[in-house]
Amino acid sequence: MSWLQIRLAIQPTQAETWEDILLKLGAVSVTFMDAEDQPIYEPDLGTTPLWSKTHLLALFEDDIDPDALRQHIQLFGGNNTPDFDLEHIEDQDWERSWMDSFHPMRFGQRLWIVPSWHTAPDPDAVNLLLDPGLAFGTGTHPTTALCLEWLDAQPMTGCTVLDFGCGSGILAIAAKLLGAKQLICTDIDAQALEATRDNAHRNHIAKDDMLTYLPQDMPQKQFDVVLANILAGPLVELAPQLIQYTRSGGRIALSGILAEQAQEVRDAYSKHFNLAPTQEKDGWVCISGVRR
């Protein structure tokens, strides 16, 4: 089966109106995309902001008359009709297409992230089998890559580890495979905790070795290693909590931070940690240190 796709160049204030119009015209799905390259990093809670230049993409079943669709759009929009175009799209297995683009990746000297449907390139390496499911964290984003490279360079044998904002569990699982003893993972998203448990099981990690909690249920204890790959704003806000979770002499690694936000985050932790030089990749940074 193929589809007819319409793409409209809209302003954020037009989004709701044109979404309603296209659904009334029979669209089976409506998607908003960035028309340029304007990432939105930390929206306010409860908001879903759009880009200043947004593309609205709507899919219709292929049996719809494209000329009639054009006429209806012009009729609804009148003189304010956005620029738009129509194209036919062949159907495909979208999940398979995504899986085919996700390949094994190496981080540091020992660690490989291997999609669960791939064979490990180096059977003797530390191979983390990953199925990210609906949660973030595959190693493809610079923030995750920076944390994995930091972990690979650390002595982890026998350590207790907290993964704060665990997503897919990739960082905690990497720590365990690199020698950590006990892991605790927390996330505000129940789906993330489910993905973390699934990935832990896939990597043959015993349930008692890797516990998952919603933040409000977290045990109050200190850890040898604290990992937090979230965003700069929450890292600053949560600094007292993350500092408290790190034992004296323990290590911390913080990421999800844009390069221009690094100093603000460093300032929030510098009184309690001897911080290493900031590591940067593609405009994102990782800040690490040892608690005094």
TrEMBL record:
Main location group: cytoplasm
Reactions that this protein is recorded to catalyse: L-lysyl-[protein] + 3 S-adenosyl-L-methionine = N(6),N(6),N(6)-trimethyl-L-lysyl-[protein] + 3 S-adenosyl-L-homocysteine + 3 H(+)
Locations listed in the record: Cytoplasm
Protein keywords: Cytoplasm, Methyltransferase, Ribonucleoprotein, Ribosomal protein, S-adenosyl-L-methionine, Transferase
GO biological process: methylation
Cross-referenced Pfam families: PrmA (PF06325)
Gene3D superfamilies (UniProt xref): Vaccinia Virus protein VP39
Keyword S-adenosyl-L-methionine: yes
Enzyme Commission code(s) on record: 2.1.1.-
Residues binding S-adenosyl-L-methionine, per UniProt: 144, 165, 187, 229
InterPro entries per record: Ribosomal_L11_MeTrfase_PrmA, Ribosomal_PrmA_MeTrfase, SAM-dependent_MTases_sf
Signal peptide per UniProt: none
Enzyme class: transferase
Cited PANTHER family: ELECTRON TRANSFER FLAVOPROTEIN BETA SUBUNIT LYSINE METHYLTRANSFERASE
Protein function: Methylates ribosomal protein L11.
Entry similarity comment: Belongs to the methyltransferase superfamily. PrmA family.
Name used for this protein in its record: Ribosomal protein L11 methyltransferase
Naturally occurring in which organism (per UniProt): Denitrificimonas halotolerans
The organism's taxonomic lineage, starting at the top: Bacteria, Pseudomonadati, Pseudomonadota, Gammaproteobacteria, Pseudomonadales
Gene: prmA
